[in-house]
Each structure stands twice: as C-alpha cells, then as structure tokens.
Amino acid sequence: MTSRRLHLLLVGVPLLVSAVVTPVAVAAGQPPPGGDEVGRELYLTGCASCHGPDGKGVNGPEGDVRGPPLTDAGEAAAYYYLTTGRMPLASSDERPVRKDPAYTPEEIDALVAYVGTLGNGPAVPDVDPAKGDLANGGVIYRASCQACHSASGSGGALSYGRAAPSLASATPRQVGSAVRVGPGQMPVFGEDTISDDELNDLVRYVEYLHDPADPGGLPIGRTGPIPEGFVAWLIGMTALLALVGWIGTRAPIREAVAEAGRGDHDG
C-alpha cells in the first residue's frame, strides 16, 4: 500500500464514521461524540423524569405539569436552581426552597452547560459588584425588589402562601441569574429593563445589604423601617407608662409629707 493510499485511508475513514454517526446521534436526542456526556448523564438521571429527556416538560397522569419545559430556561435558570439547592426535587409536589446543593460545583457546571443546549434561554450573567455603583443600586433595589424582598433583603410574604426568599445567602451570580429568569413568582427583568451595568449596581447593593452600616442607632435585626418603628414605639410607650405609674406611687408620699407639715404649723 502506497503512502498516498494510507493517508487517504487514515483521513477518510474517520470522516466517514463521523458523517454516519453524528446524524444518528442527533436524531436519537444524543450529543455527537465529544459532547458533554457528563452533563447529559446527570440530566437523564436527575432531571429527565420531570422535565423530559428533551427538556420539553412532562405532564402527570391527571394532566398536571410534573415539570415545566427547559427549552427557554437557559443556563441562568439551571445555575440559579442548582446552586441554591432548589433543584432537583424529591417530588414534583414539593415546593423548592434554598438548601445545600445536591451536586458538586463541577457537576453543576456540566448540567448548566447541557441545559443551555436544550433551547435559547439566557446565559448566566457575568456580574461584577466591584464595577457597580452602590447609590444607583439602592435606587434600583427600592424600585424593583424592596416590595417583595423587604428593605433589608430579609424576604417577605407573597400571595397564595408563597414568600420572597431572603437575600442573605445570595451570591452575585445567583442574584444576576434570578433577575434574568424570574424564578417562581418573581418577574423577569431583561436587559431592556435592567441593563448589564445596572445589574452590577444592583448586585453591589445586595452585597451591601449582607453587612450594611448602621449609624445612629441599633439595627434591631434589620427588619425594615416599619417593624423597627413599632419596636421604638413599644419601648417608648412602655417607658412612658412606667413613668406615669411611678409618679402615681409618689402621690401618697407627697400628701403624707404635706399633712405632717400642716400639723407642725398648727402645733
């Protein structure tokens, strides 16, 4: 066999195999050789039973939605739910709450990358609190976030028995991802509403809420101005009632002293 024929054989056979295997793998819903097999295997094991092997969602036996489609979720939604431990759920009826992640950081990266291939959802935003403006971040937070998450970021009650979570443990990328995908009852804030620069401002302000300055008084748990005002009113009224009671107990003593004075004068 000549060197030219050997060269054609070594080059042509792999190309032929790739041309045959790739369409078959794609048609079967599998990535071509060299794809992210780790993310796919993790997805099929822990996510496909609710979200479907193709990410298009699964309906329960009574027509209820067992898991919503992920075709528009994107990497941002996968990153938020996986890093906060809200996914996967033991049951589709379980309400997602923050807990320790079920996967390692490397497994989360693989899953996030794979979910990103299921559709055209938003990518994980590249946020940098160091580039944000704290004052403008406060303005954005009070306008778009405070009504649900409270002034201090401690969370608050919503409708239908739900609650906006506390932001005390939220990382910058988790905040940025939540803003872009709107998990749960949270609205989606696209770049036309909160730009990337404004997102940096907002993330910096949320970071500030983790350990804010408290000049001029006690923070009282940083529960917000209304609860803190009520505590101040309660303490003030208690002190006032105690003072009134003390003054009342002094009245008989003054009367006795005055009576004794009048007796000495008459004598």
Layout of strands and helices, then pairs:
Elements: H1 3-27, H2 37-46, H3 48-51, E1 58-59, E2 65-67, H4 74-83, H5 105-116, H6 134-144, H7 146-149, E3 156-157, E4 163-164, H8 172-181, H9 196-210, H10 225-266
Antiparallel strand pairs: 1-2, 3-4
Helix pairs in contact: 2-5, 4-5, 4-8, 6-9, 8-9
Nutshell version of this structure?
The chain has 267 residues and is mainly alpha-helical. The protein is built from 10 helices and 4 strands, in the order αααββααααββααα.
Average pLDDT level: 82
Structural class: mainly alpha
Largest sheet: 2 strands, antiparallel
What gap, in angstroms, lies between the N and C termini?
Answer: 146 Å
Strand content: under 5%
The largest sheet has its strands arranged as: 1-2
By DSSP (H or I, 4+ residues per run), the number of helices equals: 10
Provide the helix percentage: 40-55%
Radius of gyration: 32 Å
Shape: elongated
Taking pLDDT < 50 over at least 5 consecutive residues as the criterion, the unreliable ranges are 6-35
DSSP strand tally: 4
Element pattern in H and E:
HHHEEHHHHEEHHH
Features:
two-stranded antiparallel ribbon, elongated, mainly alpha
Q: How does this structure look, described?
A:
The chain is mainly α. The chain has ten helices and four strands, in the order H-H-H-E-E-H-H-H-H-E-E-H-H-H. The chain has helices at residues 3-27, 37-46, 48-51, 74-83, 105-116, 134-144, 146-149, 172-181, 196-210, 225-266, and strands spanning 58-59, 65-67, 156-157, 163-164. The strands form two sheets. It has a two-stranded antiparallel ribbon. The longest helix is centred in the last third of the chain and has 42 residues, at 225-266. It is elongated and about 105 Å long.
